[in-house]
Write a structure and sequence with these properties.
The complex is a heterodimer of chains A (about 150) and B (about 210). Chain A is mostly helical. Chain A is built from three helices and no strands. Chain A folds into two domains: about 30 residues; about 70 residues, Flavocytochrome C3, Chain A, domain 2. Chain B has about 210 residues and is an all-alpha fold. Chain B is built from eleven helices and no strands. The chains are: A mainly alpha (about 150), B mainly alpha (about 210).
């Protein structure tokens, strides 16, 4: 009786070991980390794609570039212009933002200015935040040349 | 030695007090005193705290037209007043420290604002307010910069900020700010109120002065 129990236990252990080995074989190969990279390798957090990061291609040559970020509640009025706190030539470098085109520093008579020309002050008159969304209203606009 | 023994016959002041306290009259008197002091302490401290909190809410702030017609009006519709989650930051949340010591200091400083309101009327028209706006803003920026934006950080803490949930531009700049030891107000001026002309130059002067020290 005792011998029988011992044999059963041995058989069960062997069966478990075999099953475990088989599972390990099917999963296969050496141990891998969850991120598929070596432990001493820096794995950065993936980008957040909730908003289009890339610049949209211009639909026509003269199109003012679109704004690839939210501009909610940015103050752009006679007193202050929040956009310029990053995009003016004086700050664009440290804020890692694109500088305004130099055409924006020309007044209506073509004089070079150090500050943004008054005629170019209100950014959102031409530049709008980009969104891959259907047009709100139909329009029949045709670009002046080419595609 | 013998002189001392004679003196010990008549106990000193504290000795006599101690003996008196052991009499029924003394014990009851002391008990009464303790209870009354305790209750009075609660009433006065509670009353003081209650009175201070009465001056520490939005309703009190906008009871002056200078606040109601200018900064409070501008604050309407900003992200600290109107947002998806319905959480709101009121005037004292940003402009009065939470910790007791700094709070009392700020409250004492605020008495000068009463002088400005009742005596000099320094900002009692929108025009006057706009004239002083840069000065007023500079004072707030200086306080924020000096305290590492303490009042912002009552709610907004880098430790609990999930950069992956943020817009790419925001995440990148917050990481940069964290690495370079910047503080909230270094970028976020005018989040709840209008900015005056020349605000960026003025802020840079404030920052340079404080960082230079």
């Amino acid at each position: 009786m005792r011998k029988q129990a011992f044999t059963s236990a041995l058989a069960a252990t062997a069966l478990f070991a075999l099953a475990g080995f088989a599972i390990a074989q099917t999963v296969g190969g050496p141990v891998q980390s969850l991120r598929g990279a070596d432990v001493d390798e820096q794995v950065n957090v993936p980008d957040n794609f909730t908003q289009e990061k890339k610049r949209f291609t211009r639909n026509y040559r003269q199109q003012p570039p679109l704004i690839p970020h939210s501009v909610d509640q940015y103050q752009v009025d006679l007193k202050a212009n929040r956009c310029l706190s990053c995009h003016d030539w004086t700050t664009a470098g440290e804020r890692n933002a694109p500088t305004l085109s130099m055409t924006h520093y020309l007044d209506r008579d073509g004089n070079q200015l150090d500050r943004v020309a008054g005629t170019r002050w209100f950014c959102t008159q031409c530049h709008v935040p980009q969104a891959d969304a259907p047009a709100l209203v139909d329009n029949t606009f045709q670009a002046s040349s080419g595609n | 030695m013998t002189d001392n023994n004679i003196e010990e016959k008549r106990p000193g002041f504290f000795g006599r007090l101690w003996n008196w306290l052991k009499t029924p009259v003394g014990a009851i008197s002391l008990g009464f005193l303790v209870v009354i002091c305790f209750v009075a302490g609660i009433l006065f401290w509670g009353g003081f705290h209650w009175a201070m909190e009465m001056t520490n809410n939005e309703e009190f702030c906008v009871s002056c037209h200078e606040m109601r017609d200018n900064v409070y009006a501008e604050y309407q519709g900003t992200v600290h007043q109107n947002n998806s989650s319905g959480v709101r930051a009121t005037c004292p949340d940003c402009h009065v420290p939470k910790a007791w010591g700094p709070k009392v200091i700020r409250k004492i400083q605020a008495t000068r604002e009463l002088y400005g309101h009742f005596v000099t009327g320094v900002v009692d028209t929108p025009e006057k307010f706009d004239e002083h706006r840069l000065y007023l803003a500079t004072r707030v920026w200086t306080a924020m910069k000096k305290t590492d934006s303490r009042e912002c950080r009552n709610c907004h803490k880098f430790e609990f900020m999930d950069f992956t949930e943020q817009e790419n531009r925001a995440a990148q700049n917050h990481q940069k700010a964290l690495d370079e030891g910047k503080t909230c107000i270094d970028c976020h001026q005018g989040v709840a109120h209008e900015l005056p002309e020349g605000y960026l130059e003025a802020y840079k002067e404030v920052a340079a002065e404080i960082e230079g020290k």
